Structure to design on (432 residues):
């Protein structure tokens, strides 16, 4: 019970941050057919109950393949795209229709003593996707295979304002009345971009993107994606990664790749600090990274005014050069606009957060919070259990972020012996 209480408390900031945000969630046909689909529905209902505006895009590839097999038809592909002739289109329509009914039925449940009790959801679908034919490429006629031309942004927006869950399939319609088979990843990406969604969530079977060493890549930028695409080749994870990067380049701030096979992966990704999958962040002019020796000059320019004001302890160039490995910085277009340092204490499971500084022109963009989060992650990676900070002017800022008043006697002996009683800095401590 204690773990549950702590998790709920730590999730509260994320709950507040996600309220009234628009999420586009893409679930492939394999995910709909997976036994964990019922749990995913429960998680989506929870998001809706917390005030998230939901657009659900579903795919039907395995369902289409099954219907082609039943009818003795052979699936035709070119450049990893399905060639949708008239007979294949019938299978597509059948699969899309049946899955839509199944999803709507699942979202309509209101059983007592279940996560769906009292949800009373309204699910709406329709002709929100305008499509056009791909046509003939490399001499191959794709027939009824198409691509997204336009998303009815206003129509979907009105339904979201009315607290409906909007359901989009992999079918699109042309102004001439034709039906086209679309990639559900393409539909989800375009919907997220045109709706100016806050998040795009893409479900795949693995937990996310894994590197060449088999380690989960938790976060990357769109400009880092091409190298991974070359390595993955035609793997489905490459499709998801490409869609995530395209969405970010189109204005979606964050795209998430999570597993449909893992119970609770969606909630863990959205409501915990470390998440459960791979996050693709929108490319920005700013970068948060570890400092190098070339950054010493920029650090001096940043912290010197605060040293003159007595806010920070003076550090010479020689000291900064020697301790540069302890610093993390925020760089914006070549200018260092924020920094912080972590000093682990020898023979102790504690460390000190020091020299946290933000350029006055950039103090309203939560850069201090981002640096604090990075320092805490570094501290946890080093096995530290607590973090100390000494401050003279910014006590309330640290109090608001979970630091509690402490005393000099609580400091490890190595740091307590260096305490400057003339500065009379206040000591704060935070458990990690």
């Amino acid at each position: 019970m204690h773990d549950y209480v702590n998790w709920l408390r730590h999730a509260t900031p994320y709950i507040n941050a996600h309220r009234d945000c628009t999420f586009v969630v893409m679930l492939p046909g394999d995910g709909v057919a997976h036994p964990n689909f019922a749990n995913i529905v429960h998680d989506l209902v929870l998001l809706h109950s917390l005030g998230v505006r939901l657009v659900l895009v579903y795919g039907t590839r395995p369902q289409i393949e099954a219907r082609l097999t039943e009818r003795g038809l052979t699936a035709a592909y070119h450049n990893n795209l399905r060639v949708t002739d008239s007979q294949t289109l019938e299978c597509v329509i059948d699969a899309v229709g049946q899955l839509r009914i199944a999803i709507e039925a699942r979202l309509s449940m209101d059983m007592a003593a279940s996560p769906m009790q009292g949800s009373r959801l309204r699910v709406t679908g329709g002709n929100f996707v305008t499509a056009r034919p791909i046509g003939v490429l490399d001499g191959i006629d794709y027939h009824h295979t198409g691509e997204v031309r336009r998303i009815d942004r206003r129509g979907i927006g009105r339904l979201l304002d009315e607290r409906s869950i909007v359901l989009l399939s992999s079918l699109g319609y042309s102004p001439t009345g034709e039906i086209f088979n679309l990639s559900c990843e393409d539909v989800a990406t375009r919907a997220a971009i045109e709706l100016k969604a806050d998040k795009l969530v893409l479900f795949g079977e693995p937990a996310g993107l894994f590197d060449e060493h088999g380690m989960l890549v938790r976060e990357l930028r769109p400009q880092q994606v091409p190298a991974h695409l070359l390595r993955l080749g035609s793997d489905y994870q490459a499709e998801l990664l490409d869609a995530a990067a395209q969405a970010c380049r189109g204005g979606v701030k964050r795209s998430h790749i999570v597993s449909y096979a893992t119970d609770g992966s969606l909630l863990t990704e959205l409501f915990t600090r470390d998440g459960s999958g791979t996050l693709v962040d929108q490319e920005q002019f700013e970068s948060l990274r570890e400092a190098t020796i070339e950054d010493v000059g920029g650090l001096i320019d940043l912290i010197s005014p605060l040293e003159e004001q007595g806010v920070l302890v003076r550090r010479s160039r020689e000291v900064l050069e020697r301790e540069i490995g302890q610093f993390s910085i925020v760089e914006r277009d070549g200018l260092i606009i924020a920094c912080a340092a972590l000093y682990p204490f020898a023979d102790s499971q504690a460390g000190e957060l020091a020299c946290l500084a933000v350029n006055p022109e950039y103090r309203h963009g939560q850069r201090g919070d981002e640096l604090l989060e990075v320092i805490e992650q570094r501290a946890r990676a080093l096995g530290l259990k607590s973090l100390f900070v000494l401050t003279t002017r910014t006590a309330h800022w640290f109090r608001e972020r979970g630091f509690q008043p402490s005393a000099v006697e609580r400091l490890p002996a190595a740091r307590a012996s260096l305490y400057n009683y003339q500065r009379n800095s206040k000591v704060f401590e935070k458990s990690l």
Observations:
- The first helix runs from residue 2 to 18.
